[in-house]
Amino acid sequence: MEFKKYIYKKKIKELPEDLLPREKALRYGIKSLSDGELLAILIGQGTKDLNVIGLADKILRDKKLPDLKNISLEDLLKIKGIGKAKALQILAVAEILRRIEEEQDKLVFNSPEDVYSYLKWLSREKRENMIVLYTNTMNQLLGEETVAVGSLNVLNIKPRDIFISALKYNAYGIIMVHNHPEGSPEPSTEDISFTKNIKDLSLKMGFELLDHIIIGKKGYFSFNQEGLI
Questions:
Q1: Three-state DSSP class for 102?
Q2: The whole model's pTM is what?
């Protein structure tokens, strides 16, 4: 610890190259840097009492870079040597980390089986439900809406109920899912007609109807899989 304090108080130009984050990154690659060294490159310079390596270490204080996603502007401004500009740089990185983590946590639907696994509980429902899943271009779930519940005919579902939420989520893809409580997932004539109508409207409005999946007692029917979309 005493050695660290000694190093931290030295001017950067007085330190050997192997201790300088930029030079180390150029020589050994960016992956060779510790969290503190990466942060040091980001903030650029230290104070008259503490060089940039020491300042980065002070910011982290036994934390790792992902922990910065919980730090606030007020917390950073309490650290001597961190002004608003540096604090915002750090918060920007923290927000990037948070958003990456959020993206990684999103559900991804790459196949009808993925959707079936997610909404398999519909096979136990005694009433008919229509649920719509909204996705981005990477098939990640942005949101879901139940647009109808009860003994229903899909022709009575208003297309606007589907597209209003597509606009709300700024979605790319739409996946419709409903169940047949009586057991068979085979589509009715009305199911086929309704799906074609929504497909046509989706194209006109700039969305992509990725699938319409019907869930029965012991399986599912995918319009996409069967070449009906």
A1: helix
A2: 0.60
In this predicted structure, the answer to whether residue 165 has a pLDDT above a threshold of 70 is: yes
User: For the chain, which domains are there?
Assistant: 2-104 (no CATH), 112-222 (3.40.140.10)
Query: What pLDDT, in 10s, does the model give residues 29-52?
Result: 888 888 989 999 988 888 888 888
Q: Which amino acid is at 98?
A: R
DSSP-assigned beta bridge partners for residue 216: 219
What's 163-215 look like in SS3? HHHHHHCCCCEEEEEEECCCCCCCCCHHHHHHHHHHHHHHHHHCCEEEEEEEE
Contact 39, 60 (CB under 8 A): yes
Environment class of residue 191 by beta-carbon count within 10 Å: exposed (0-12), middle (13-18) or buried (19+)?
buried
Residue 152 has pLDDT above 70, yes or no: no
